[in-house]
Automatic annotation (TrEMBL), chains A, B:
UniProt lineage: Bacteria, Bacillati, Actinomycetota, Actinomycetes, Jiangellales
Residues of the HTH lacI-type domain: 5-59
Keywords: DNA-binding, Transcription, Transcription regulation
Record has Cytoplasm as a keyword: no
Pfam families registered for this protein in UniProt: LacI, Peripla_BP_3
GO molecular function, one term: transcription cis-regulatory region binding
SUPFAM superfamilies reported in the protein's UniProt record: lambda repressor-like DNA-binding domains (SSF47413), Periplasmic binding protein-like I (SSF53822)
Protein name as annotated: LacI family transcriptional regulator
InterPro entries found in the cross-reference section: HTH_LacI, LacI/GalR-like_sensor, Lambda_DNA-bd_dom_sf, Peripla_BP_I
The keyword Disulfide bond is annotated on this UniProt entry: no
Organism annotation: Phytoactinopolyspora alkaliphila
Amino acid sequence: MGARATSRDVARLAGVAQSTVSYVLSGKGSISPETRQRVLRAVKELGYQPNLAARAMRTRKTGRVAVVMGIPIYNPVHMLAGAGSAAEAAGYVMEMHSVDGNIQDRSERILELAGSRQYEGILSFAPTLPTLEQNAPRDVSIVTSVNFDDDMHTAGELADATPVEAFIEHLAALGHTRFLHVAGPPHFASAQRRNQVYAATIERLGLVSLGIVGYDWTGEAGVESIRALPDGTPPLAVIAANDLVAVGVMRGAAERGWSVPGDISVTGWDNYDVSPFLFPSLTTVDNDRAEAGRRAMLRLIAALRDEPPPDGLAPLNQIIWRESTAAPST
Amino acid sequence: MGARATSRDVARLAGVAQSTVSYVLSGKGSISPETRQRVLRAVKELGYQPNLAARAMRTRKTGRVAVVMGIPIYNPVHMLAGAGSAAEAAGYVMEMHSVDGNIQDRSERILELAGSRQYEGILSFAPTLPTLEQNAPRDVSIVTSVNFDDDMHTAGELADATPVEAFIEHLAALGHTRFLHVAGPPHFASAQRRNQVYAATIERLGLVSLGIVGYDWTGEAGVESIRALPDGTPPLAVIAANDLVAVGVMRGAAERGWSVPGDISVTGWDNYDVSPFLFPSLTTVDNDRAEAGRRAMLRLIAALRDEPPPDGLAPLNQIIWRESTAAPST
DNA sequence: CTGAAAGCGCTTACAG
DNA sequence: CTGAAAGCGCTTACAG
């Protein structure tokens, strides 16, 4: 493939002015059907594709948005794919940036990206400083979507954490009275909300909470939280922050000779691909990550267009009951 | 923040020609130290950042590379981050595209991306058609890196699959004589190589293989491969394609009342974040995904610069022995 | 309905 | 050592 065809080449071949080509392609202006046909034929014949850099320069719109990822909690590829296809559908190209470090670092990096003017908007899938948006250039939109759950926030207050309530209600109906919550890091809004819902539901149903512990999205947090329990604690139901934590809880139980679900019921979150195959398989919350990514991107796109954010969306979370939850054995 | 400063604004403030600003910034031409100082001061004062679209148009270099992901096997974020930072270090911006569908679809999409001329190079982390590179525009480099393991291929023949050999040797030394390989899909070069190394090592050591089965990277493949075994099969050692398959194998064993590692030893691949917390914890292969991503990107960058690909790199795979492997109990 | 022309913000020969 | 000028490939008033 030699030199690439330009709109000028197309115009020459079609026997029209170069501006006519532009009008045909943009659908603006008023071009006669015959001229339009000739131009389109020439476009096809030359395999013409417009030079986006030139267009960007002229229109002062880059047509690009950036997505910023922090340390990943769980496989975000589906989320990225969802965000990417939403961006594409809206006529944007999506670029991904991975940013290590803490909130401060990440926020600075986002500001840098905003300053580069390569992007019309930036979507962050990791927590950012609350002051971020004020410091950004006014013509760059920044939307922070801490994680999947936070998208839910836009769909309705606390919709996100309702599975925690459902978990507890169901387990209580099975006969559980004693609960433990191994929570996620508090600077994740989703973790905080689950935490709140946990406490509120325990209180509302008059159940016993053995505590809220962990505050980390790791397997260690799960193991340690069980190791720290006094002998003879079971029966017990553990609401774990996610499936990784839940696996740690199950291991902690096994180490102490406590059976799951006989002695301890365990719930996770995220429906890891291994979770259906664990023994016992893990009760968890499945979330439609692709849709969550799509919605986050739609939120950014709405901001770019000065439209109100999409609202009234159906929840993306669905509880999947599996073998790790059952009535207490005694 | 109002209108953005251009090089012309900088020139005006510094009292020089606009071209001088360009020379100072590019380091080309010969500019006196005083003039350079004045320009740099003006740059800083105005917060000037060059318009990349304009530069791209003028230089006919976009400074962009694309990464294409297929259906993810396991969390590729670290790999993407590694690739991204390598790209950045080489002066490129990396863009990510997720592509669903089969090899055919993916290859077409890559060709489309190449045709868009938005990218100087494209790196695919999923299998592509062998004919792909011939059909691509000659000025766009395309590098396919099926997955982490394939990067190893560039680092030395079969370096990738050597852990399979090490697994088998170690297990044989522990007293295992009967093996089963639950393999990955054959169109993944990495799966194919492990398969070959498995067969060759079994043969070389005079061991017994109960078969090569599965050919899928799923938990079901693991469960089914154990369900299909005749009663009384153990003791046995299973080399699973990855940790997800291995978890399926462990579940299959549990369903049949076979203990791990007493009756069946199991090895995985990828060191999932849950793997250290399984009960028993899973012996597996840890790979430095960030480095693998970096190397894949370096391969693309070398291709862009018409340099030979980097060579002689240390292996990225490391076996982690855990509880799922032991001497057969009888 | 169509064309000639300006200009987006750069880089880079070229002339001085 | 520095500046005036052309041109990358588009879009969009503007004139006809």
